[in-house]
Each structure stands twice: as structure tokens, then as C-alpha cells.
Amino acid sequence: MTIKSFEGKKAPYICTPLTGKTKEDVLNQVENVIQQSPDLIEWRADFFTGLGSTDAVVELIEEIKHKTEIPLLFTIRSVNEGGEVISLNEEEKVQLIQEICRKTTVELVDYETANETNYVKEVCKAAKDNKKQIILSYHNFSMTPDNAEIEERAKKAEALGADIVKFAVMPEEKADVLRLLEVTKKIDNALQVPVVSMSMGDIGGLSRIIGWAYGSIITFGVGVESSAPGQIPAGKLRQAIKQTQELIPSWE
Question: Where, in this chain's numbering, is 3-dehydroquinate bound (predicted)?
């Protein structure tokens, strides 16, 4: 499956995060990341100290978009799923995401399926009303749940209106990485929307390189600073994926 923001490009799409705390930090990271030619940039706005000002967030998004035509994913990662502590409560966070959908030119927004269903529906509606794509995500930094739970969460995300379903989990052993890949393929076959998955941590790095072969269409690589454990520098990640695809072209 393809994502409309990446028409004409071949999956997997490499996404690099912005994690700056100030406007200057973020814009400096943008300059660095652009040089690495990612397919997607994720602004992890939970790192941003100015998150309490909607005007400041909107203005910074437009400055990022002025610098590059690379599609932008806007994310305020929940502290419960690996994000930074922020000053906004969940209702205020949802209101900010709604304003971002209405007032900016971001292409995609991310929100966690574990949040209250009414909030998830509000974010999905704002995204769709304003022609943004919505990633509904699930992150577990402690373990890799059993396959049934991962499948159930993925199906729930699709049912709630996800354009893209994402799940990132922490392996406790190598077998968890291989199991994650297998369940990714099963979910990709079962859903009507694209899937993004990754096994985190050092031993999970394999999933970031070959996840595409199991149906995962986005992989996250370090641009300036990592936003999750196990991320590989974007340049090395691109090279590893290219070599893998050349060696096993029948998987594409």
C-alpha cells in the first residue's frame, strides 16, 4: 500500500525526527535533516518548550514548511508511550492538534489509540476534515505483547479511522523481534490501511531494516537526535535497506 504524500516513491519511507526544545533548535535540526533527504520529517513537538502557545507552534510549523517540501508529521507523544512531560492536559493537547489540522499545512498527524475514544475520534475528525492523514499509534517500551493483543490494537485503530496504523514495541529477546515481523505481515494482510511497525532497542534494529519485507511502510532513522531507542542513523539505514532490496528483489 502507498501513502498519498509519497506518491512516486518506493516504500519503505525513511522518517527522521526533530527533537529541539526551542524554535532555534528545531530550525537548526531542520537544516541538518534536509541534507539527509528523508522521505518524511516528524516534529516531536512534546520536546518543544513553547508547546503551550498555539500561535508559536503554528508559526514554527510554517517556518519548517517554508524550508522544505518534505512531508511533515506532527506528533505530541504521550508521556505514557515514551514522550516528554508537557504542560498541557489531554483536552488541551487535542485542541492544539485540532488547531494544527485547521491552520497549518502539515501532511500527517499522530495520536495514540490508547487515549480516550472520544479524543481519538475528535482528532480523526479534525484530520479528515482538513485533509490530513492520521496515524493512530501504539507504543510499548516495556515488552512485546502477545500477537493477539497487537492484532486487536491494530484492528481497533483501523476501525477508529486511522489512515495508517503504527505499533512500536520493546523486545525482551530476539524471538520477540521475529514475532513482531510475522505479526506485522499478518496485520498488513488483514487491514485495508498501511501498517508501520518496529521493534525497539538494540536487538530490534533488524526490524527497522527489513520491516518493509513484512509490510511496514515507514522506518524511523536518526537525523540529529534519536527519538526512540534503537534508531539507526538515517544515512546508514537507507544504505542497509537499499542493499537488502538489491539482494532480495523478489520481496519487493
Answer: 42-44, 77, 208, 227, 231
